């Protein structure tokens, strides 16, 4: 790969993109970082306005063997958007149109740079929404959400990005425009390139436009908060909740350490306990009380300490405060945070949390676990002071142990953040050599010169 | 590709498989047909008992350049299981184990040859089910369901095969065992080979084992039957149904011709009408009445002729009789049937049905449309007498026009049957040359010698 841009490429790009071609130092630095706090210097930044420009950029970069790193809003926590091999950062910030919003057919066609929240607003005017609700929804783009298969708390009922995309228009690493999938919710026509590209983090093709499945908004919601004596009894309640026919619209977990932090640092009005579950149901006014009763019933069992319900929006806010106060509390006690998103089968949540507690003791660092219990998708946060070299080293040493623990419980490395550079070397622990070879063969098939986001996802 | 089996291969297979290696004429003929009424002679039939044998077969066939056609129960209606290039038919009929059924974690790991209905029975003992319910469920295999992305009526609420698989073990055309996906309902770890293999009809890899997502059974269901003055008003009701937050568990459509056939030939107690909708909701006793009311409300609108509800199982059976009487009625009036499964956006259902009526008039054949309206997935049946050469020719001439009509309405060729040989030449109308080239590149990546189910899915 060329480490500096050839002059003919620079000239061609400047002519093609006009003020959408940035090669000044400030831009190169600005677009060289993401939310992982990683950094590398891009050679230049391209801001295309349409698919023809995207295709022209890819074709030119292929000709000159220059890397292209696709970028949404740079909210990746895995370094997926960092241009480690230089080349061009291609930001979709000028491609933000809602091309079509077909309410009767419940789909939207949008450009990759559209912000998630802006889609939700437009869909909401028709009583519809797009399921993925990552914490970054106010700033992250649809293209970025798709690239890393973003989820969020309501995925437990409505699914992740991959579950809510019908079709894609993309430019492959060979510079071809492909249109895969359909406008419809059933499709058995040919190879499913759509779901393959979702979660591939810009390494196979650049997602330029997406057809998204929209769902009807449930107008009302109710919540409950349950405290348990230990994680085992909370996990058993999760299994009961997921085995009855009223699907929770959110099912969030906090471990003992998180509960304590929310109270002692965040100021939440909550008792000490071994584990907490927040459960939400949504629906219409006529059935909401019943749904709340159904999930309350499922929550009851051995080890339940307390159960509070919030049948309406006002009481809901109060109940969710402890969960919301957690993130600021985490920031208060530590400047440094490794925020993982491992997944295990629900029945293995107790073993995961016990293992995390053991790692916290062994490495003498606060390590907390919370998140999307219905999917077994827990955010394990390793907290440390980045100015303290010893703490930093211990945090970094704890991370491979967390992944080994997760895999030993038949879990997987990432539920909604993706792999990026942060986890790529652990891919060899998660998959067999033959499986990785198949992934590499697919990479080779769609990006024969390896110009798309090199050094990401697949291990060296 | 070798058109006859080399002697060393035959010897190796006989030693490997013992009585699981069939090369007599009866077996070769029996395994050379499927439910598409197509036929070709296999060179031999392999009945492996485990993944090691599957891998050994693939490796040997690759070495000798011999085709392998994977087979479940042969219920394909597209000729996907026909060994047109000879070679080995690999039937999974001896691999029918339920390897694991984890009720608390709501997944099952099963071998590819397990019959759909047997999985449902085993899962049902835990109050769980696997969503896909193709009409062939009593005989078709999980591997076959996955290979063609089978759906069925309840896909409107619960999704198709692709939506309900978590992971796969498969043998690629290069003879490697790959294990992709996970045990969990969220997964952002590497390339999504799982969903790529689903619907690839045995052309990329042989699915040997699958991890399936199980869902909690809703214990009760209620139905309604609505007659409409025309298809337009029925389609508007479908759009209203899909835009409100109580998802129908089934949402079936019959056109005017189907209603007439069900009454006049099938003996159903049903009035003449322009269109019929059958709507089912499921849930628990406490909310079912409300759900039925919610969908009844959504059904009401311009053009509604009558609305009958069935709040319990006994009345349900009576109401669904007209739908059940349709298939025997179709068989009664015509021995020959081209049964397609095109999909269009819901708003285009009226245009599709109008176009089908025009084709029926133009080609002077009964052509009827019914099926899964909530997904826009209609079974268009072209009826003819196969002993009448002129009728047969007209039926075959009508088919490309149906696909052209579907694509002109921004629909797709198949919702749940797949492509096989029946629709492969129409793939070039459905996808751009560049998109097909990407599919071919992926085929080349996973099956470099083209030994897996050659001549299927992708056009020549």
Explain how this protein is built.
2 copies of one chain form a homodimer. Chain A is α+β, with helices and mostly antiparallel strands and 460 residues long. The first copy, chain A, folds into 3 domains: 7-91, Uridine Diphospho-n-acetylenolpyruvylglucosamine Reductase, domain 2, CATH 3.30.43; 98-216, Uridine Diphospho-n-acetylenolpyruvylglucosamine Reductase, domain 3 (2-Layer Sandwich); 220-408, FAD-linked oxidases, C-terminal domain (Vanillyl-alcohol Oxidase, Chain A, domain 3). In chain A, 36% of the residues lie in helices and 22% in strands. Chain A is built from 15 helices and 19 strands. In chain A, β8 and β9 form a beta hairpin. The longest helix of chain A is centred in the last third of the chain and has 21 residues, at 313-333. Chain A is globular. The mean pLDDT of chain A is 96. At the A-B interface, β9, α7, α8, α10 and α15 of A face β9, α7, α8, α10 and α15 of B. Chains A, B: Residues 38-217 form the FAD-binding PCMH-type domain. Chains A, B: One of its GO terms (biological process) is methylation. Chains A, B: It comes from Pseudoxanthomonas dokdonensis. Chains A, B: GO terms for molecular function: FAD binding; methyltransferase activity; oxidoreductase activity.
Terminal-residue CA separation of chain A: 15 Å
Poorly predicted ranges of chain A (pLDDT <50, ≥5 residues)?
none
Query: What Rg of chain A do the Cα atoms give?
Result: 23 Å
CATH architecture annotation of the largest domain in chain A: 3-Layer(aba) Sandwich
The description of the largest β-sheet of chain A is: 8 strands, antiparallel
Q: What name is given to the CATH topology of the largest domain in chain A?
A: Vanillyl-alcohol Oxidase, Chain A, domain 3
CATH C-level category of the largest domain in chain A: Alpha Beta
Average pLDDT level of chain A: 96
CATH homology superfamily of the largest domain in chain A: FAD-linked oxidases, C-terminal domain
- How many structurally independent domains of chain A? 3
Morphology of chain A: globular
User: Which range does the strand content of chain A fall in?
Assistant: 15-25%
| Oligomer state of the chains in this structure | homodimer
